[in-house]
Amino acid sequence: MSKISYYTAEGLKKLKDELEQLKSVERPKASQAIADARDKGDLSENAEYDAAKEAQGLLELKIAKVEEVVANARLIDESQLDVTKALVLSKVKIKNTANGMEITYTLVAESEADLKAGKISVTSPIGRGLLGKSVGDVAEIQVPNGSISFEILEISRDN
């Protein structure tokens, strides 16, 4: 059974672009590498040929995996999301109740998480703890070194 993943339009486009790159650029390179190695003579003792065939096999496996992800990808309709609760694609401003530090995260699907860009996965401990909360709520989040309380200050969406 394949796992359905949810993507923003931007995330799905990135995935499809990667698939296109693999098929239209990487696949022909792999075929050319095999042809070049084949032209060098005896295949029974040609390590370059064996390596090129193995690289092609790994590339085909990667293409198949990305194709499966694309086939099971679902686009998130942002217009149908409740803006009063922290959901996927919500930009949530939170305050650590212990030290008063404020930070803003955008909750995204696991495949689009990028901490440097302020995007955290809804499957991460903080993401899970914030899901479904409203402004003013306090989220008690279990982290590896204990429990942290975050107050939800603001919820918005980038449309």
Short overview:
It contains three helices and seven strands.
Secondary structure: elements and pairs:
Elements: E1 5-7, H1 9-38, H2 47-71, E2 73-75, E3 90-96, E4 102-108, E5 119-121, H3 125-130, E6 138-143, E7 146-157
Parallel strand pairs: 1-2, 4-5
Antiparallel strand pairs: 3-4, 3-7, 6-7
Helix pairs in contact: 1-2
Question: Would you give an account of this structure?
Answer:
The protein is an alpha/beta fold and 159 residues long. Helices cover 38% and strands 26% of the residues. The protein has three helices and seven strands; from the N terminus they run βααββββαββ. It has helices at residues 9-38, 47-71, 125-130; strands at 5-7, 73-75, 90-96, 102-108, 119-121, 138-143, 146-157. The strands form two sheets. Strands 5-4-3-7-6 form a five-stranded mixed β-sheet. The chain has a two-stranded parallel sheet with strand order 1-2. β3 (90-96) and β4 form a beta hairpin. α1 (9-38) packs antiparallel against α2 (47-71). It is elongated and about 70 Å long. The chain starts with a strand and ends with a strand. The model has no long low-confidence stretch (mean pLDDT 85).
Percent helix, as a range, is 25-40%
- Helix tally? 3
Q: What is the molecular shape?
A: elongated
Low-confidence stretches: none
Computed structural class: alpha/beta
- Helices and strands, in N-to-C order? EHHEEEEHEE
